[in-house]
Specification:
The chain has 599 residues and is α+β, with helices and mostly antiparallel strands. Among the domains are: 72 residues; 129 residues, no CATH class; 205 residues. The protein is built from 25 helices and 11 strands. A 5-stranded mixed beta sheet has the order 9-8-7-10-11, with helices on both faces. Strand 1 and strand 2 form a beta hairpin. Helix 15 crosses helix 23 and helix 16 crosses helix 18. The protein starts with a helix and ends in an 8-residue tail after the last helix.
């Protein structure tokens, strides 16, 4: 056992004397004095460096930046760094006359890549503002934008016109249900154009006409628009690509070519399927048959039968049908409903856009029962447009009576009809303040002076004049007149009516003498109002014939959305045939969660 004195002596350490400490300190100071000043490491060139050596050094640094920014493989980066090191081993004399070899690290080169490539932009307050760039963006510009982050100024932000709406800094983040604050790195704001935009979509989206690519300035429900865009598949794909670029994981040329080839194939498939859908819808033909499987026997229906027929002469559809079962083919009932909905909504958007562009509009309403004994309300909107030529000169006055589809009427009282009509106008974004006419038949529920539908709507919009259907009035007049006179054969002489119609008189002022419209604005307005007022409800009643063709005895179980969409495509078949199919495919890819790439 050790004694205390023995243990204490074993733990005692040998201490340095004062003279030894002073000697070590003196040696350290002398060594530090021989080192060059720290400022010499940050000098780009010195007085002893020639212009040729300066150019060589800058070229080497730029080569290193390019190798890093373009996402080279590890082997390529190592080779590039080795070549750069061999080039940049130039001697730079310092103030003490010593030589220091310049060798930039990868992280430092990446940090200064934007400055090397965009010297003029780095001095801007917001160098990644999209208004500072012109389309199309180069690879170097995309790298610079990604490396410098999104354009998210702190504010304050200007108001939009006379409204109090403005962009807010709170849009840049969102609180999760658990209370965590999540940053929206994709959302950007351009202080130059006062517009919000999506950085990933601006950099990588194929749809260059999208709202979030060009910019969104309308502050109405901007938060809702942001949330909808966040859930879009196209936005998520662009965000993934941006993250790959940011991490130097760009897709190889071969993989990108394969993705593009597959996307092109599915776009061609959808092009053919959409055209088949339009053909069947505008021809009032049924889609489905007894069998939904092409490989099985029996009646496949018109849709699959036409697809099979075209596949005999078309290699694209032939390849589609050769895809094994239980894989995506875009031939299902759900896809048919999606395409019918997108096509009908596209036609309806064009109609509503034209109606809202007009000065006034009128509504024409009538109801009937379908094959399933369901009360269907036919919506027709009437408006007037002045067609112009390439020189923006008026050439024709057109009166439009266009259908907006069918609605189910559950409450047949005056209040129920009124609520259905007003809800339809609100959902179709038709301005009630522009309503100038109501066209109905003579039913008491509709035409009642005190509590009818027309009276209730006039209480909300006094300028919405009620017009009793002229055809119904004429029928009543003829019946009364013929019942009060004895039966005899009437002989009349055919005479040419030389009187001009109101439309012809209006064209005399608005087309032939359009320069006088500014001198007679009240007459111009009177003509537009008179031509906007409905005359008959014949357009609504003509839509009933389409209803009987589409929803017949064998198709009585059709859903209301499918019925309304098919009816709209059939009635407005001229507009439907003029739709941009490629735009429809883009909407299909943007709004729906797709299983196959389309962009």
């Amino acid at each position: 056992m050790e004694t205390p004195s023995t243990s204490h002596s074993s733990l005692t350490r040998k201490q340095m004397s004062g003279a030894q400490k002073r000697g070590l300190k003196k040696a350290r100071l002398e060594k530090e004095a021989k080192l060059p000043k720290i400022t010499s490491f940050f000098m780009k060139t010195s007085q002893g460096m020639s212009l040729e050596e300066d150019k060589v050094t800058q070229t080497a640094e730029t080569a290193t930046v390019s190798a890093i920014c373009h996402g080279s493989s590890p082997v390529e980066q190592e080779q590039g760094e080795h070549a750069t090191d061999m080039t940049t081993q130039q001697s730079i004399p310092t103030e003490q006359g010593e030589d220091i070899q310049t060798r930039g690290r990868e992280g430092e080169t990446r940090e200064h890549a934007g400055k090397e490539l965009n010297v003029d932009l780095i001095s801007k307050t917001f160098p990644t503002d999209k208004e500072l760039y012109s389309e199309p963006l180069s690879t170097d510009e995309k790298i610079f934008i990604i490396s410098n982050g999104p354009c998210q100024p702190p504010g304050p932000f200007p108001q939009h016109g006379q409204s109090n709406r403005r962009f807010s800094k709170t849009y840049d983040s969102e609180l999760s249900k658990s209370g965590l604050k999540l940053q929206r790195k994709w959302l950007c704001y351009s202080p130059t154009s006062d517009q919000a935009y999506c950085q990933p979509c601006w950099l990588f989206s194929q749809d260059r006409e999208g709202g979030w690519v060009r910019g969104v300035r309308d502050g109405h429900n901007l938060k809702g628009k942001i949330e909808v865009h966040e859930g879009a598949v196209g936005h998520q794909e662009c965000s993934t690509v941006l993250d790959h670029w940011r991490l130097n994981k760009t897709v190889s040329a071969e993989a990108e070519a394969a993705i593009r080839k597959e996307a092109n194939f599915w776009r061609q498939v959808l092009d053919r399927i959409i055209n088949v859908t339009l053909t069947l819808a505008t021809s009032n033909l049924a889609f489905r048959g007894h069998r939904e499987d092409v490989s099985s026997g029996g009646n496949h229906g018109n849709f699959l039968s036409i697809i099979t027929l075209i596949a005999k002469y078309d290699p694209v559809l032939q390849e589609l049908l050769n895809i094994p079962e239980r894989q995506t083919k875009y031939l299902s009932l759900a896809l048919q409903n999606e395409l019918i909905d997108i096509l009908s909504e596209s036609v309806k958007e064009e109609i509503i856009k034209d109606a809202n562009t007009a000065a006034f509009f009128s509504v024409i309403i009538d109801t009937t029962q379908d094959a399933g004994k369901t009360d269907q309300l036919s919506q027709v909107v009437r408006f007037v447009s002045v067609e112009t030529n390439e020189k923006d000169q008026p050439v024709e006055i057109k009166i439009h009576e266009t259908s907006l589809g069918f609605l189910v009427v559950e409450d047949q009282s005056a209040s129920g009809f009124t609520e259905t009509i007003l809800n339809a106008m609100e959902s179709n974004k038709l301005d009630l303040l522009k309503l100038r006419g109501q066209g109905y038949d003579g039913a008491a529920t509709i035409s009642g002076v005190y509590s009818g539908v027309q009276a209730r709507i006039q209480a909300l919009q006094p300028k919405a004049t009620y017009v009793h259907c002229a055809a119904h009035n004429l029928n009543l007049v003829l019946n009364d007149a013929m019942s009060s006179i004895p039966e005899k054969r009437l002989k009349t002489n055919k005479q040419t009516n030389k009187q001009k119609t109101i439309k012809e008189v209006a064209e005399l002022l608005m087309i032939d003498n359009c320069g006088l419209c500014i001198s007679y604005p009240d007459i111009y307005t009177a003509y537009m109002l008179f031509l906007t007022l409905p005359v008959t409800v014949a357009s609504s009643e003509r839509s009933f014939s389409k209803l009987k063709l589409i929803k017949n005895y064998t198709r009585s179980s059709m859903s209301q959305e499918r019925l309304s969409g098919l009816a709209l495509l059939s009635i407005e078949n001229e507009r439907a045939k003029k739709l941009d199919i490629q735009k429809i495919i883009d909407n299909f890819a943007e709004l729906k969660a797709r299983k196959k790439p389309l962009n």
